[in-house]
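Researcher: Here's the sequence for the chain we discussed earlier.
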Amino acid sequence: MKVLVVEDDRSIQMVLELVLTRMAKCEVALASDGDQGLALIRQFKPDVVLLDLMLPEIDGFEVCKRSKEDASTRHIPIIFLTAQPQPAAIARAMSLGAAAYLIKPFDPATIISQINEALAKVQAPRIG
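Model: Thanks. This is the structure I predict for it:
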């Protein structure tokens, strides 16, 4: 299972990488900004993307929008993982095609559960 984490906070990247590699036995790629995230969505071809909203370069909304507009990547579930709890942000993310919207701080078990839910919707193998 391949997971792309698009997150500009290095400490959160490290925690997610640890959780996903050790608890869920995933292959993980990391991106620190929106441009790098878009490039890795195309190159790494993840099974799921964990995406922060507030990123350098282009924000998570734009990453999600562009990913869903691209025929080669639109099937990849995107789970927002952000500190932005505003209902308008949640509604916008979901309208752009997000599979889920999780608020930081996060529980590792919830992350794995949401990944499995998103993968079940596209009938991909489950993790952990």
